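Quarterly update from the structural biology core.
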Amino acid sequence: MEDIPHPLVRARIAAGLTMEKLVTGIRAAAARRGLRSGVDEARVRKWHRGVRPNDEHQVYIAEALGWPADIVRADDWPNWLPLTADGVIPFGPHSSVHALREALRTAMERRTFLTISGAALSALAADWAAGPAAALDQAVNGTPVAHEFITWLETSARQLAGMATDERQYIPDLLEAHLDTVTNLITDGRYTPADGLRLHSLAAYLSQTIAWHRFDLGRHTHASQYWVAGLHNARAARDHDMGAGLLSDLAYQAAWRQDHPTAASILHHALTRAQNPAALCLLNLRLARTLAARHERRPALRALAAAEKHLGDAGADRPAWCTWISEADLAVDSGQTLLDLGDTGRAHQLITEGERLLPPARDKTRGVFLAYRAASYLDQKEPEPAAAAATQSLLLARRIGAPRCIRLIEDLLPRFQPYARAQGVPELLQRSAAQVPAASRT
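Predicted structure, tokenized:
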């Protein structure tokens, strides 16, 4: 693999700074403290060649790049340096590795102050839809990577991702360790072109799985970074369906945060290159949901019809990220779409039907579906069954450690207040206010 520029070079370019402006910014950071820095361009070039700046100058560097001083971990120079100003690594020759490193660093350092704009994500989606995948780098040196080791990593990653929902709080750190290993293999290993594709595919799968764990915990910046990293690696692996799936996850997150214009923009780009019927089904379901939230009735119903058709066409050959899509998901998401469009009677029937169709292995999804069912009962002014569904969802979410599901119930609680004397409502409100035992938290 070709030499990758020093992280300080990449960080400076991402911040839009020339070498001269970086030096000026470092000197200004020192001056704000009543100090004088003797840094010049020659000194910065020494840092590029491996000389470590002292602790104070690392703080000055962070501020010159536009980042807060508390991002600095002086003992881990230059690994703490950000590679992007807006959280989105652009596509490029080495972008698959850059995006992985940025996601792993962001999660480790808890850079929750970083926000990724909808415009940046939409632009990335447009670039993905328009641009061909770059040729994979091939390392001419490095340690050979055995086929058997890649197979073990693939098998282990899928076993971890498929473990029982009750054990999900232990999984993200193990998955991140796997992803770090895969990233190092891509960067430093020597492998065949076919194994290079496998490594990038595995990196995309791991990134997507970790992103959902982080999203469920409400760590939206971390989730976005991992989905972006997965998108880069799906592109490197030339897997259009996987790329479309990662874009659909970013769109789902945008819709969750009520940014429906961004969600719709991303999904329209994703649909341009997806091919597998199961993938097209999921994309259209998510598009229907976000269009309904924008009260675009006819486009939303067209997307639902397309989703139903694609699910009927889908066979056993499905991408790994959407093997789970089923009649249960079609029913519930159709119900939610109709709920937003005002067809509450039919919506309630579909949501209830979908929850009943769901297999026991998908308890986290069951908790979300129960929350949707509670909302549909409230729309029909039926507080008793709404309270029963919400209570069941809350208890399930607390048992398995699913904060996203708990948040759905918490958002519904104000709607129960007018029914404070209805059967089951006082108990629900009491349970929601009760302290959760530490052992059940994630």
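The longest helix spans residues 193-216.
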